Backbone:
């Protein structure tokens, strides 16, 4: 995949005014093993958020650092058709000791001073309040993703 310079997400809702604090993730298929999940920062109050090419590639490389045997493929061989959805914080909330057990990976260390701060951000998202259909997007056609959300 030729990763775009910037990938943007715009959340939309007919009934929610404040779309802040929501984490979107992309499911990326590369190789035959586990998919890669690329997580965006939290949205602003208008439901907008973006990640750079460097952030996308950095998160991709962190998957490899986390467990070489569980992942296959590369950024270059990844399918440009990705699935955008809301990040589900339930596992992290229900398993704090396991969620905090890993040290920060290389790319994460550039963004977070500690695993505890990264974890606090992850579990404080407003995602449990909302539902969204998964959106399939071809990043080679457009680096702009629109995701419709509604209250649960």
Residues:
């Amino acid at each position: 995949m030729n990763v775009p310079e910037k990938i943007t997400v715009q959340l939309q809702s007919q009934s929610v005014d404040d779309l802040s604090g929501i984490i979107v993730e992309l499911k990326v298929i590369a190789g035959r093993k586990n998919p890669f999940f690329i997580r965006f920062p939290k949205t602003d109050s208008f439901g907008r958020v973006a990640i750079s090419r460097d952030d996308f590639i950095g998160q991709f490389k962190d998957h490899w650092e986390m467990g070489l045997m569980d992942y296959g493929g590369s950024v270059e061989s990844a399918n440009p058709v990705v699935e955008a959805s809301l990040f589900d914080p339930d596992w992290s909330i229900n398993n704090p000791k396991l969620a905090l057990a890993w040290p920060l990976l290389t790319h994460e260390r550039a963004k977070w001073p500690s695993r505890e701060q990264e974890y606090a951000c992850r579990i404080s998202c407003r995602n449990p309040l909302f539902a969204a259909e998964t959106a399939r997007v071809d990043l080679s056609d457009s680096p702009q993703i629109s995701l419709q959300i509604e209250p649960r």
